[in-house]
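Hello forum,

I keep getting stuck at the same step: I have a sequence, I want structure tokens, and every attempt I make locally crashes halfway through. Rather than fight my setup again tonight, could one of you with a working pipeline run this one for me? It's a single chain of 134 residues.
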Amino acid sequence: LSVSEAMERDVPGIGPGLTVDTFAEQLLSGGERTTVPVVDGGSLLGMIGIAQLRRIARRRWSQLRAADVMVAPPVLPRLAAEDGLWTGMEMLRRTGLDGVPVMAGTALLGILTRRAVVTAIQARVAAADGGAAG
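Reply #2:
Ran it on my machine without issues. Output:
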């Protein structure tokens, strides 16, 4: 599998000036997203994941902006769509991040998350099982 086969696509971003209290609860509520890109004018500035939010006291959420808590380059790694899924999984494990951006030059194509990796592997196993049974 490649990163492009597993990544989450069409991920809505947030602006760097947005206060943490405007998006943190939604991210922590266990919905579909575990990480959110911070963008400005179509450019990726950084990423915020559940792990970063859990380290911030809720009383501070209204005082902090997305730009204050995001993981940004050069600390933020990036993947290419054609990278192998194993490479992406290893990057997630090594960095401890909730998601790694998948880029084509400066364009954000998607985000590779642990959840996306599990979903892709489960789909591949189910397809293999279905093919073997038929």
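Residues 80 and 103 are 5 Å apart (CA to CA). If your local run keeps crashing, start a new thread with the error log.
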